[in-house]
Design brief:
alpha/beta; FAD/NAD(P)-binding domain; 3 domains
Length: about 575
């Protein structure tokens, strides 16, 4: 007699949902599972989702190197090896390389086309016992009677499932700032993405003065949309990484960023710099081993910071051809530890260099035009240890009391380690040099309105504004989520946010922990909504997070038609991620 199909709902089919589906196809083929899968996604390009929309301008780039992009997580028993192409292989095979062939940081639109193509390859190779349906309605609510789950869609339709996976990413709905009362006379543009909706010539007229809240990656994208996106061009200067900006008639007149600290994100270093120093691999291996050996509930300052400081010191020494022992090593490790400690306190000092000089120096060091410095060593150490760090900090690895300081540290490390690709840093500097970006008010600038005039700053340096753009994205996790699904399961006690964290608390295979501290059967979550329970979700690097694979294995085994398959695999309660 044929076994009934186990009904699965994947809520969100952007990249994270696609990764989970790819793993489910693999494990369903291995287990002979009988599955009926509904994937809910309202974006018209499932697999890519809004972040990797294929119609967005190509000046909007990844800050993850192209050689780290690969949809396929190892083997897939349903999809032949010849069809499991990495991003680089796909670009060459599809003819999408062109002038981008050697570009280490590709446009997000091109990556979106790769993801859409990957979804089609998955759909063509579904195993015999698996059915997949794409549901274009937004899933608005999830309910359970402890025997099955009910998903209520935006059109009022109701469907029943045995398993539900939340993979909603950035969520849906209007930007958070759009709902806030705006007390100023100058109009507010509440978001940057998609730039083809928010930053058009109709909403922000040519020749206007624009203040932009935020000074991180989204600010750079906004600045490019208001300049290059309107016909401006960048010309190569006789220097390894300098450009000259040539404006168009549709440009805005001036872009004025303002932020809490005014500190820029530093340019990513050329990966060839680190690859040219083989001893760095040994340094990273030692640091990763020390991280893996930390006990559960380890302390940030007493346990983690010494590893980060010594790794940075050793990285700097070997990069400059020195030994990693002795007084020089202890002095550099002490300086690194002091820097890291200030970052944990949220009191990282204002740099001796201004923002332009900071970015320029990071480009020089990253291109090998200057010797590596302490910031390069700290960034390189963080990057090289990051996979081990994600695995050890996630779940119950870090002591609860250490989380506030860790979040401050992670924000500062993101600034120096996960900044813009060099090409966008070069464009940023060119826009400053051309007078299109003015950094006079970048640190702690305040917007005021007096006598009907909205301005940034005070005194003789203040600038009258025509428009204000909010370029600060909502924080990851569940607390700031715009998803009604995430908010709903927390409100109903089916999921919870751990103390001092932001994201849904999940088990090793993504299972949600409810208000009572027990696993909620049939409900799992991956991606941005789980941030802090699982660290570092804003990435397409599949090597960092095993939760989707573990979820898919458990679901496939529970639906296996094989007589020897364990029916309760993965149903452990309270297991840390």
């Amino acid at each position: 007699m044929t076994s009934p199909r186990r009904r699965i709902a994947i809520l969100g089919l952007g990249p994270k949902g696609l990764f989970a589906l790819e793993r489910l196809v693999h494990h369903a083929a291995c287990e002979g599972a009988a599955l009926e899968v509904d994937a809910y996604e309202t974006h018209d390009e499932p697999g890519a989702g809004p972040v990797y929309d294929t119609s967005q301008p190509e000046y909007l780039r990844m800050n993850l190197a192209a050689d780290r992009l690969d949809l396929w997580s190892g083997d897939n028993s349903a999809v032949p090896a010849a069809e499991r192409l990495s991003f680089q292989e796909w670009r060459r095979a599809s003819g999408a390389a062109g002038r981008e062939a050697d570009d280490r940081y590709p446009p997000r639109a091109v990556v979106g086309r790769y993801l859409v193509d990957g979804l089609e390859r998955v759909r063509r190779r579904l195993p015999v016992g698996m059915r997949l349906r794409l549901v274009t309605q937004e899933a608005r609510a999830a309910r359970t009677d402890h025997a099955q789950w009910t998903i209520i869609a935006a059109d009022g339709s109701v469907r029943a499932y045995d398993e539900v996976l939340l993979a909603v990413g950035h969520g849906t709905g209007a930007p958070m700032s759009h709902a806030r009362a705006w007390p100023h006379a100058a109009p507010l543009v509440p978001a940057v993405f998609p730039v083809t909706r928010w930053l058009t010539v109709e909403s922000i007229h040519p020749g206007t003065v624009v203040a932009v809240r935020g000074f991180a990656l989204t600010f750079i994208d906004a600045a490019l949309a208001l300049t290059e996106g309107r016909g401006g061009t960048f010309e190569v200067e006789p220097h390894p990484h300098r450009l000259r900006y040539v404006p168009s008639s549709n440009d805005v007149r001036l872009i004025l960023p303002f932020s809490r600290t005014g500190r820029p994100m530093l340019a990513k270093a050329d990966p060839q710099l680190a690859r040219s120093i083989p001893a760095l691999d040994e340094v990273a291996g030692l640091g990763s081993s020390r991280l893996a050996a930390l006990p559960s509930g380890f302390d940030l300052r007493g346990d983690l910071l010494p590893i980060l400081a010594s790794t940075a010191a050793a990285s700097l020494l070997v990069a400059n051809g020195h030994r990693t022992e002795g007084e020089r090593s202890r002095r550099i490790a002490g300086a690194a530890a002091a820097w890291l400690g200030r970052a944990c306190d949220g009191s990282a000092p204002v740099a001796a260099l201004d923002p332009v000089e900071e970015v320029q120096r990071s480009l020089d060091v990253g291109a090998g035009l200057r010797p590596p410095d302490l910031l390069w060593a700290l960034a390189n150490g963080w990057q090289s240890l990051y996979p081990a760090l994600v695995g050890r900090v996630s779940g119950t690895g870090l002591a609860p009391a250490s989380w506030p300081a860790f979040l401050r540290l992670a924000a500062e490390m993101e600034r120096i380690a996960f900044g813009p690709p060099p090409v966008n840093a070069r464009k940023l500097l060119a826009l400053v040099a051309a007078g299109r970006i003015d950094l006079s008010h970048v640190r702690a600038g305040r917007i005021t309105t007096e006598d009907g005039m909205t301005s940034l700053g005070r005194g003789p340096s203040r600038r009258r504004l025509d428009v204000v753009v909010d370029a600060v994205l909502a924080a990851p996790g569940a607390r700031a989520s715009r998803s009604p699904l995430v908010r709903g399961v927390v409100a109903d006690g089916l999921a919870r946010v751990a103390s001092r964290r932001r994201g849904l608390e999940v088990t090793a295979d993504g299972g949600c922990i409810g208000r009572d501290g027990r696993r909620t059967a049939g409900l799992s979550a991956i991606g941005r909504a789980t941030e802090d329970s699982v660290v570092g979700n804003d990435t397409l690097n599949r090597r960092l997070h095993p939760q989707a694979d573990r979820w898919a294995r458990r679901v496939a085994r529970a639906a296996s038609t094989r007589a020897d398959a364990p029916r309760d695999a993965g149903e452990r309660r309270g297991e840390a991620a």
